[in-house]
Amino acid sequence: MTVPYLCLVVLAALGYLILWKEGLLRRKSALFLSAALLLAVMALRGALLEHETLDYQTFLHAWVEDFRQAGGFPGLRMDVWDFSVACNYNVPYLYFLAAFTYLPVRDLYLIKLLSCLFDLLLAWGVLRLVSRFRKGDFARLLSFFLSLLLPTVLLNGAYWGQCDSIYGALSVWSLVFALEDRPIRSVLAAALSFAFKLQAVFLLPVYLVFLFARKVKWWQLLFFPLGYLAAVAPAVALGRPWKETLLLYFSQAGSVGSGLNYNSSSVYALLPADGNQVELARLGVLAAFCFLLVLYVLCYVRRKRLNDRALLEIAVLICVAVPYLLPHMHDRYFFLADVLTLALAVVSPWLFPVPIAVSFASLLGYHAYLKMQYLLPMRYGALALAGVIVVLLLDLVIVLFRKQKAG
User: Fold this and answer.
1) Would you give the DSSP letter of residue 77?
2) φ/ψ (deg, to 5) at 329
């Protein structure tokens, strides 16, 4: 257990370097307080490392052992059904699982430490996002440490052993690069995020709004498929079937199951379980499409008012509303919403109840899986998210339609 703790100390040191690079350690008080807080957030993660979930026992550990039996990286040639337990994770994450077979450390720790590393990169992205709007050291430091202490971020990697912080960090950085007028980097970050997890698709609709706002040009979007192909190319080069690799997400979409809701605070938590599931699923997809269409029309009509603040709120709204309306959502699918609502609340403090409501809704799903029982009915979370969507829509309308000050 010594090695994992040493790794967490290294991560704390890396976090310190990030804050130094961002110019947030100029005061002596910040020097010592930041060091203490970084050690504390990593100690919290260290206290959670030993926990094994069913996901780890059934899937993650089995996949690492499959790679070990196949000799490490050569195992990347295996298709979904070649594993002892079907593995439908995309290959960028499997690169890490294959690499773990070469290290003399228990795979449970390595899987969780990888997520802890991306927790740090996620918090850095949130810091940079907030820095576009708030220049004070306090607000920026607050965004960094609150991101690391966000309950769903803390539980997702260090306790659950999930990897949502990887696609989450890359998605946040895609927003950072877009707002910093570095469109190609933004598109490549979005492509890498999508290559790690299909759930990155919840943020991708914002790129049409970026086109309206001239944050990206249409030809720069061509870097998305190029980035995705680059991410999966090493596995194909090692012998993994290219067709199955490129079409993996289509097979995932076909295997989501018939359930309309899997411990998620989506709108389906408000609906009776005995309804026509096929018809309700179609209505959910239609509702998500109509929501985006109305949002696009609004953004196009008011495209001259699409400043960075409006673009951030639009991205947040999409990450809340799209998984809220779609069928077949799982407990962790509001991970991006958890993080981005926090960033928005630090930028606009009057919205601070929003991330609290979103985290509450997410934690109901986390509790249902991790404790195998419901803390509260999931409809409570669905009602909280409905309120969040209304608040964000109203605030966005105010941002887009309020009169600009003269002079």
Assistant:
1) G
2) -80, 150
322 contacts 267 by C-beta, under 8 angstroms: no
- Structural tokens at position 160: 């659950």
What is the separation of C-alpha 368 from the centre of its chain, rounded to a whole number of angstroms? 20
Q: How many CA atoms lie within 13 A of 318 on its CB side?
A: 26
Residues 6+ apart with CB under 8 A from 178: 186, 210, 215, 216, 311
* SS3 at position 240: coil
pLDDT digits (tens, 9 = 90+) for 41-100: 999 999 999 999 999 999 999 999 999 999 999 999 998 889 999 998 999 999 999 999
Q: Which whole-number Å values give the CA distances from 339 to 154, 298, 349, 356, 362, in the listed order?
A: 12, 25, 15, 11, 11
Around 392, how many Cα atoms within 13 Å sit in the side-chain half-sphere? Answer: 32
Nearest-angstrom CA–CA distance, 220 and 225 = 11
Q: What is the pLDDT of residues 316-361, one digit of tens each?
A: 999 999 999 999 999 999 999 999 999 999 999 999 999 999 999 9
277-306 CB burial, b ≥16 within 10 A, e <16: beebbebbeebbeebbeebeebbeebeeeb
Give the residue ranges of DSSP H helices in 132-163.
137-149, 151-154
pTM of structure? 0.96
Helices (H), 150-241: 151-154, 164-179, 183-196, 206-212, 223-237
Nearest partner of 385 among 355, 405, 340, 407, judged by Cα: 355
Quick: pLDDT tens for 18-52.
999 999 998 888 999 999 999 999 999 999 999 99
Sign, CA dihedral 130-131-133-137, equals positive
- Does residue 14 carry a pLDDT above 90? yes
Tell me if 164 sits within 8 A of 338, measured CB to CB: no
Q: Are 240 and 77 in contact (CB under 8 A)?
A: yes
Give the three-class secondary structure for 329.
strand
CA dist., res. 201 & res. 322, Å (int): 10
| Cross-strand pairs, 261 | 329
Report the share of the chain in percent with pLDDT over 70: 97
**Dihedral angle, C-alpha 171, 207, 135, 123, nearest 10 °:** -10
